[in-house]
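Thread: Newbie trying to understand structure tokens

Hi all, I'm a second-year student working on a class project, and my supervisor (Dr. K.) asked me to get a predicted structure for one chain before our next meeting. I've only ever worked with sequences, so writing a 3D structure as a token string is new to me. If someone could post the tokens and maybe explain what I'm looking at, I'd be very grateful. Here's the chain:
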Amino acid sequence: MKHIDVLIIGGGPIGIACGIEAKKAGLSYLIIEKGCLVNSLYHYPINMQFFSSSERLELDDIPFISAENKPRRKEALEYYRRVTHLHQLSIHLFETVLGVHKQAEGHFEIETSKDRYNATHVIVATGFYDFPNLLNIPGENLPKVSHYYNDPHYYAHMEVVVVGASNSSVDAALECYRKGAKVTMIVRDSAISSHVKYWVKPDIENRIAEGAIQVYYNSQLTAINPATVTLEQQGKFITLSNDFVLALTGYRPDFNFLRQLGITNQNEVDLLPTFNAETMETNISNLYLAGVVCGGLNTHTWFIENSRVHAQLIIRHITQR
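---
Reply by user tm_fold:
Sure, no problem. This is what the structure looks like when written as tokens:
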């Protein structure tokens, strides 16, 4: 079993950044990604536009040139592919980490779906996009329900319920509406989220105001049936005819995986994992967190643009030791 200095779990932008820094520091390393390169970005909606401008998504000062100031999914996929190729990063794709076990000697043994590895340090940069926040209501498992949104054409001329009022929900509602869908939004709060992209928020509010998109505020779905949905609004139950439900209620890190690694939480309210903000080291020596996985349930606190620095903090701490 070959020994490496750093094993990085997750081949998204932050995992790539960690690989770049490890290579620059002369460390042996390996990135393991369970899907394709930048797997989470690949599964973003096909027309998705980032909130961040392109220069804030750059790695290692490699220019990110996009047609607009704020790049789209397709451009990001191409950019991170080129960065990976430019640095000739050591990365294994479509390989799943099954377990990470710390040995008495202080190193880690990592078991994957394809092999076993031995590493002195492990970095977890797994993101959060693979685990949706479930509604936990009857009918959520019906084929008409999806926690992910991709292409609006699929919903053309259909009756679509969109659950949520965040960026993903608003984008889906507007795109489906413009493809001819009858769109109804179910919003838990009393207004569209203030975090919605500033150039999109007026659009959705105007479509709601003119009645093109129907919305139920202070509401939540209570049941999903093959041809209808039922919602509750301030004690009143309403049934709507329906073809598809887009339950875009957010996502969360794989907390079970973090617990299996032995990582504790700072508190049990937002499940914020324990780590040193100056080094990103967890409560387990030589085990680090990087990227949005650091946010617990507060997934809106970390983005590519403000977590790129995690790679430098971690590798600096490793080399200084």
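A couple of things are worth pointing out once you decode it. The mean pLDDT is 95. The CA atoms of residues 55 and 76 lie 11 Å apart. Feel free to ask follow-ups in this thread.
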